[in-house]
Write a structure and sequence with these properties.
Length: 149
């Protein structure tokens, strides 16, 4: 189970906002997309959706831009995934069957359920703040590496 591109970009954008933006210093779509190497128009749509759903705030104008609407320590990875994609990914069958359940399992059910439920637990516990701390210590990155030839 992989995250959708929309969820990936939303999470990376929220981490960037947590690192760079405040109510006094907002960050624009252009900066976010350039710094994270994300498609600008798609990132803009994602951020506008996050504004509509209350995770992000924005102001228009010369000093406008985006910033987190809540402390990064209160926004879990699962909050973002549910807002962006819904929580259905954590109920799906590993083989894509629509009637798979504990009482009517597919051949992959038990193994996939352990993986899916474990990932859901991690996503429910980890916050944007937790992810940002990893970036702040240099143990993790949100920018793509630039290859030198």
């Amino acid at each position: 189970m992989m995250l959708s591109k929309t969820s990936e970009y939303a999470l990376r954008s929220l981490m960037y906002l947590a690192l760079q933006a405040t109510k006094e210093h907002k960050v624009g779509i252009k900066e976010i997309s350039q710094e994270l190497d994300l498609p600008m128009h798609f990132t803009g749509k994602i951020l506008q959706d996050l504004v509509r759903k209350g995770l992000v705030a924005s102001l228009k104008g010369p000093n406008g831009g985006f910033f987190l609407n809540h402390p990064a320590s209160t926004i879990t990875i699962m909050d973002v995934i549910k807002v962006v994609d819904g929580g259905e990914a954590f109920k799906r069958c590993g083989l894509g069957m629509n009637k798979c359940s504990d009482t009517h399992p597919c051949p992959l059910h038990e193994d996939f359920k352990v993986f899916r439920d474990g990932l859901a637990r991690v996503f429910n516990q980890k916050t944007i703040h937790d992810l940002v701390q990893e970036v702040g210590t240099g143990h993790a990155f949100i920018k793509n590496l630039v290859e030198v030839s």
